[in-house]
Amino acid sequence: MNNLIILPIIIPLIFGMFMVIFRRRIILHRALSILGLAGTISVAAMLITQIQSKGIQSLNIGGWAAPYGVTMVADMLAALLLITTSVVALFVLIYAFKSIGRDKEEHYFYPLFLFLISGVNGSFLTGDVFNLFVCFEVMLISSYALISLGGEKGQLRESIKYVLVNIIASFLFLIAIAYLYAVTGTLNMAHLSVRVAEVGQDGLMTAVAILFLLVFSLKAGLFLFFWLPGSYGSPPTAVAAIFAALLTKVGIYAIYRFFTLVFYHEPQVTHLIIGIMSAVTMVLGAIGAIAYMDIKKILTYNVVVGVGFILAGLASFTAEGMTGSIYYLIHDMVIKALIFLIGGVIIAIAGTSKLKDMSGLIQTHPYLGWMYFIAALSIAGIPPLSGFIGKVYITQGTFASEYYWLGAIGLFTSLMVLFSVMKIFMNSFWGETILSEEMEKGTTKGVMLPIVALVMLTIALGLGAEGLHDYVQIAVEGLMNPSLYIEAVLGGNGQ
Amino acid sequence: METLMSILVGVFFAIGTYLILTKSLLRIILGTSIISHGVHLLILTMGGLKTGGPPLLGLDSLSFTDALPQALILTAIVINFATTALFLVLSYRSYKLLGTDDTSQMRGNEDE
Amino acid sequence: MKEPNDIILRGVTKVAVVIIFTFAINLFFSGHHNPGGGFIGGLGFAAALTLLFLSYDVESVKANFPVDFKVVTSIGVLIAVFTGLGGVFFNEPFLTQAFQYFDLPIFGKTELATAVLFDIGVAFAVIGTAMTIILTISEDR
Which residues form the Na+/H+ antiporter MnhB subunit-related protein domain (chain C) (predicted)? Predict the structure, then answer.
């Protein structure tokens, strides 16, 4: 029993609810939201040290013993994602202070933002399939509100699509839960793992597994990403950045949890499907990123490529692949938030997202330009930045499990990603300066702090990859060896 | 009984899918709520349909139903209630702003 | 526009709302051992309020009942979460409940449970959410 685990979920919830009571006090909102996220960061840090010294932590809510009640579990993967989430969210929040606008702030932007974080944290920490659904819904309902906040024409149109797709995905999730419950008679993840291992993963079970894969692919944007470019392109920059950094990652985390803990018995079927899906995702995403000449579209297609690449590590189902995936997952959360923020600033300055209509920004904004350059190199995985180490390990993993085609596609799409982000750099920063400082539609004032901080973070993650290695190893060990998780949750009983 | 329920669930899904594929936003919302009923029935059926007492009788009762699917359905209904309400408000606002509830006319050009 | 003649609706509403309120509170308290509880009690309460809003107009109800329902929701959630946190201070898991029998002056031997506090929070949250949704749709025309 460890009550710390519940705090990352309820701290944002409590702070958000306080803000709803004091609607007009925007300064209070800002202070409370920073305080809330700082609280989650410190709790996550405490969790990491505890997991390192004492193993996986669990909490049976209300004192109901493990397979019967709802269990919250914090393993190293969850804790690492937790701290990354909070840090990234904090910087995006600081960016939002200047950019989001008074009107949206009064329409509960900060409470919704914190509820979103609460749902994301809950999804990472839960040890129960149905509770995972509930946390997903908390996250999604906040995201529905955030994506339609402001209510412009294009935004409403895209939000209707987004909401509809996610409602259908939620139904599929419930259907999958119903089948799973019918076959196994339990919804506790550790208990599920035990039950599935006992009866073996037969055809029926694999079918259920693929239904779950379908659900989470819709959320993560793995292959089924048709809804993603539109809906991530329409909301304000801060919202798009947090969506790109977090929402798809929750789906990825769920796929990881399910296919390492529960459905790991038939990797030649399920993991091969994941591999094929991730290969197709990478190729299609990279084509999209190259084809468009619009900053928003290029960046959203880069999100898609990232999703495919992370899951290539899972498809390899080797320790190297997993290590790479975790490194890359952390890197991707940071870098996607960063590149969306910078993209947002460029669009704000130029007043358009079309690359053809902008050039020569390096004259007036040299720092922004070089920050973007670093971010672009990092996204493509150039050493010593943070994307490199993940890319190496994932490629190694795919080669070790003899999925040479998967590794090759991963490396090839990295080149295409580099091309697509450099296209933005060359078109917007190089060339003749057509925009004098007076003509600019927006400024960089007040928004550089989070960008600089995130750039520092990506450099630090790249240079300090060695320091992170111990933690990542613990996470990988937990993923490759489900008995650790089961032992932590069920203890002696239920075996 | 389970077979009958499965057929009913199938009918619900069919109607819901048909409605979602129509153009009118209101029909789409109705379609999602009909599918949600189908899903809830499916969870109930998958938990096993037993004619037994309520689940909180004490240790001496011999036959009782599984309480978990019912708890799941209650939670799912609440969540679905919230989502449907939000979806309704959203569609109403876009109807006001775009002047149509026909999804094929809603499609605008990229430059807006 | 002619003033609608809804004297019967208004007359019935005045009586019915009180009955529904009472029934909602009854449902709420029976929830501890019997069917009922915070969720359904809160919905009953919200139904009565909706009836009020229907038979009188939004403005006059708001003038007599000046409550922001979003605040009601958040207070409800806060009550529920903080009751859950109560267990944490006694080094029990989150959401642990406790109950004890007391001899109260009028009621006699009564069971007092912390779960009721949680349920009050749930009821507030449900009332607030339901009313917020209904008012959001009905406000503009």
Answer: 8-132
Distance, in Å, from the CA atom of A82 to the CA atom of A307, rounded to the nearest integer, reads 18
Interchain contact, A178 vs B46, CB within 8 Å: yes
Is B107 inside a domain boundary?
no
Predicted structure pTM score: 0.93
**Interface-testing mutation among B89, B91, B94, B97, with chain C (most C C-beta atoms within 10 A):** B89
A96: three-class secondary structure by DSSP: helix
Task: Name the domain count of chain B.
Answer: 1
Nearest-by-CA chain A residue for B98:
A153
Give chain A's end-to-end CA distance (angstroms, integer).
19
Residues 6+ apart with CB under 8 A from A102: A26
Extract the tokens encoding C135: 């008012």
- A173 close to B72: Cβ distance less than 8 angstroms: no
Q: Is residue B24 part of a domain?
A: yes
Nearest CA in chain B to A182: B46
Q: What is the pLDDT of residues A275-301, one digit of tens each?
A: 999 999 999 999 999 999 889 999 999
pLDDT in tens, A17-73: 999 888 888 899 999 999 999 999 999 999 999 999 988 999 988 888 878 888 999
Helix axes A203-220, A153-184, angle to 10 degrees: 160
Range of the domain at B11: 2-51+64-101
Q: Which residue of C has its CA nearest to A107?
A: C70
Cross-chain residue pair A144–B90, CB shorter than 8 Å = yes
Domain residues for the domain of A330 are: 3-487
Contact: C137, B78; criterion CB under 8 Å: no
